[in-house]
Specification:
This protein has helices at about 1-15, 15-20, 25-45, 45-70, 75-90, 90-95, 100-115, 130-145, 150-165, 170-190, 195-220, 230-240. By secondary structure, the chain is an all-alpha fold. The chain has three domains: about 1-70, Helix Hairpins; about 130-195, MazG-like (Helix Hairpins, Orthogonal Bundle); about 200-240. The protein is extended and about 65 Å long. The chain starts with a helix and ends with a helix.
């Protein structure tokens, strides 16, 4: 690991492209590599996971090297996260007993608030994907008691939001009501113990696979999309579902 860190430092000094990068200019690459890693994990492709972990590690080390140039050290970064882990896991490193993972999460939020007495929502980065952001915000609110008592309360709220969306008369209002509906839907995932971001990603992959089957089915018939119609494409879609 030390040799790799030194290699990244050398890149920073000797490669013209790497030398001119900043922490902000590297953000798109950091995001891209993160999503590529997620994709390989979902496919359970171990060889690609190893490759993508390396790519992500390169981006993280480059961020560390740039921070080091500004006067910080890699030891400072490691010690900061080490101390945070110990502080937020008293059930591991101290004599604190917990019943289950839910109590672990509640203790985690309590400790975070004691460390930084700001809003308990202040540490949730607004740059997260929207569904994940919504779930994170609502989980924190739920941990302090701001929540429905059961899933029926969420479903009732969802029904209310759908009606408000149907009644919306302007684009601005429809946008707001659709956002409210998606926000409630994401929280339904919390009650059902489902990660809505991952659930939607799986559905997108399923849609892509089935739509590709329509494309291939039309190709076998010597047709393009323009030469087909909705009934024919729906038939091919149902065939793909039945496989």
């Amino acid at each position: 690991m030390k040799d790799f860190y030194e290699l990244v430092k050398r890149l920073r000094k000797e490669c013209p492209w790497d030398a001119e990068q900043t922490q902000k200019s590297l953000i798109p690459f950091l995001l891209e590599e993160t999503y590529e890693l997620i994709d390989t994990i979902e496919k359970d492709d171990r060889e690609k996971i190893i490759e993508e972990l390396g790519d992500l590690l390169l981006n993280i080390f480059m961020q560390m090297v740039i921070l080091e140039e500004k006067g910080n050290t890699k030891e400072e970064i490691i010690n900061r996260i080490r101390n945070k882990i110990i502080q937020r896991h008293p059930h591991v490193f101290k004599d604190i007993k917990v019943k289950d993972k839910d109590e672990v999460l509640k203790n985690w939020q309590k400790i975070k608030k004691e460390e930084r007495p700001l809003s308990i929502l202040s540490e949730v980065p607004m740059t997260l994907p929207a569904l994940l952001l919504a779930q994170r915000l609502q989980k924190i609110a739920s941990n302090v008691g701001f929540d429905w008592e059961d899933v029926q309360g969420v479903i009732g709220k969802l029904t209310e939001e759908i009606k408000e969306l149907q009644q919306a008369s302007s684009l601005e209002t429809r946008e707001e009501e659709l956002g409210d509906m998606l926000f409630v839907l994401s929280h339904l995932g919390n009650f059902l113990k489902i990660d809505t971001e991952l659930a939607l990603r799986k559905t997108c992959k399923k849609f892509k696979k089935r739509f590709k089957a329509i494309e291939e089915g039309l190709k076998k018939r010597g047709k393009t999309f323009e030469e087909s119609n909705l009934d024919e494409m729906e038939q091919l879609w149902q065939q793909a579902k039945d496989r």
